[in-house]
Amino acid sequence: MTLDDAAPGIPATSAGGPPREHRRYVVLIACDPGEWAQASDAVKQEYFEAHHAFERYVDAHGRRTSSAALCDADLATTIRRDGDRSDVVTDGPFVELVEQLSGYYDVELPDLDTVIAAAKLLPKAYTVEIRAVVGVEGYEGV
User: Fold this and answer.
1) Which of 14, 15, 69, 132 sits 20 to 30 Å CA-CA off 75?
2) Residue 100 contacts by C-beta under 8 Å, 6 or more apart in sequence?
3) What is the pTM of this model?
């Protein structure tokens, strides 16, 4: 699937300007969970300030739909499915990784370049993955 297959943009208006199209993106944040636990108060404050800079940038260029920090992967629950056999529910992550998904932002912005510019404001210790939200042909949510 390409970005051309993505769901249509979301109409938005700029301050006093004409409507413009925005695309919906999810910004996935991965990091080493041990870094946060060991961070000093000053380092944690730097992280908070970087998130605030990201949020201000997104708010100025589009909007935030939702965001959240996620619990560590060792507290996750995984459901594995294997054809017709019963589902297997286990504690812990799907795979063991050094970096773990630690949070996300769901945003609406004009284009990928704007999302990249925003994501660069997040803490440098993060690995950031950006994905456009796409529509699935034939599926209608309830």
Assistant:
1) 132
2) 30, 31, 32, 33, 72, 73, 93
3) 0.77
